[in-house]
Amino acid sequence: MSANNSDTPGGTIKFLAGNEACVEGAIAAGCRFFGGYPISPSSEIAERMSAVLPTLGGKFIQMEDEIASMGAIIGASLAGAKAMTATSGPGFSLMQENMGFAMMAEVPCLVVNVMRGGPSTGNPTGPSQSDVLQCRWGTHGDHPAIVLCPSTIREVFDTTVKCFNFAERMRTVTVLAMDEIMGHLREKIVIPPASEIYVENRKRPTLEPGQPYNPFEPDDDLVPPMLNYGEGYRYHVTGLDHDKTGFPSGSAEVQESLHRRLVDKIEKNRETLILDQKVHLEDAEVLVVAYGSTARSARRAVEEARAKGVKAGLYRPITLFPLPEKQIRQAASKAKRVVVPEMNLGQYRLEVERVLGHPVTGVHRVNGEPIPPSLILSAILGD
Amino acid sequence: MSMDYFQYLRKERMPHIWCPGCGHGTIMKSILRAVDKLKWNKDEVVVVSGIGCSSRTPGYLDFNTLHTTHGRALSFATGVKLANPKFHVVVISGDGDAMAIGGNHFIHSCRRNIEITLIVFNNNIYGMTGGQASPTTFFGAKGTTAPYGSVEQPFDVCALATGSGATFVARCLDLDAVAMDRLIHQALQNKGFSVVDAWSQCTTYFGRQNKWGEASDMMERYKGLTYNVKLADKMTTEEKQDKYPVGVIHQVTRPEFCAEYDKLIERVRSQE
Prior knowledge:
Chain A is α/β, with parallel strands linked by helices. Chain A has helices spanning about 20-30, 45-50, 65-80, 90-105, 130-135, 155-170, 180-185, 250-265, 270-275, 290-305, 325-330, 345-355, 375-380, and strands at about 10-15, 30-35, 60, 80-85, 110-115, 125, 145-150, 175-180, 185-190, 235-240, 275-280, 285-290, 310-315, 320, 335-340, 360-365.
């Protein structure tokens, strides 16, 4: 399955930066609550949300910090709103504890991380992909993760909608991993008409009158149906290990099954969550695995290599996590060499190596500048 | 008092975790009496807490309940209230939860004047983690992390709330449940951010380490550390030294955040 990047008849043509397209996507997905804290290079998302949401009867709040932003969107989601925040590296670090709460308490919400250089304050205005593994493993404990990463402005729109859909469907926090280039790059975008945008909402239980509601009792898909606060079933939500009723439990059996279910609900549904793009993979002898803005350079490098007679191909995960393991293995099935370019020192490369079982060639850059096609082309050609 | 507490309690969650002599149950019952008097619809009440002994309270209450992360209850509560202002939102927090790790959320909730009532179950100690000094531990008092007595100055919860912009601020002792009922009832009715600094003795950790005795001895101590705010004008500065007023400490009217946001929505939409 690949995200649609083509023009849509009947759509609205706009010229938007990624941060703006993200807002458009969020609104289209039904987002009506934004809690955030200013941080470069994500601030335009908050700014635009503060202007747009009240016109739709939605709510925007600038919180006192990123920890509070994350808390606010979880509270808003429990109250029935589709809710999101947007941030960058340092703020993303601060959100991690409450992101774990959203996973544990199964509260749908979206965190956009417009990646910049780190650690610490790093390079606030330069692009980076160095939070990729933090997106996967940032909070403590074993936990699931759904992380999408767009490469075009239209795809920012599409993946924002998808992130909300996945969050609602799986009852968890999802992460949209952009980078500074995707946040500020401005492109033509055709926004599809509302009738063509597929929007999912949290699955509701069907209860007989008088039947108790167990907010954490899963269906066969391992996802428990969800009621909002105020709908007549007064239930308890906690970050403590809890049973199906939502109340804390010290039972070893309950704890074991809870943690396994939280991970399994993503694992067992992983194929429904994977979005990707495959370019010239049918005969690829050199495989490039690239994502986000780096994939734009990689695409160019692959085409240039083809023009030189080298059978190069690109596998572009749009869903970074759950890791498209089967897809990466398949993409590499004929490859003699695999190249992973990324604006970090080899985070996703580690994942690719783990899946393929052998070292691959990394092209890494952490100086706040994008990786140019020429560097990737050199790696493809083995220069 | 002939009210049926069990209509508001989750009986199956009993027994509670609190130690014999702890004042938390007294405050919890006072909250229930106030809610009962206001005849709030239970489906429209959301009780939010952080982490600690006091923060276990929502689990015992038959409302929409949310037990969040340490210090962050007010931020979750802000999201609940703003997303759906029809909810009556009550936050239950301890002195460590509200004043240390949650201090930033405390002052900003006061500033924003969002219609939420925060009740600080203040026992001057971290109970759940075993008796460490907190931001309200009295100067010189002992905790497991202040074995020689605290050399830090404590927060005055009410002074901080007043200075930060809360529109109803009160202090009460679990010794005087009648005054507590009145103050919590007033707090819940305030159209803005309310703070009630409700003192509760921790006999297990604070009392034992400081040799303050049993619950009744500790309540006497608290009585000696406080004075009725209505008598403040008649007391000398020396008499008030190192003592805390009880009663309504501060009450003003300021625009409430959610109501102002709704006005903003109306204004913006009427201009379209």
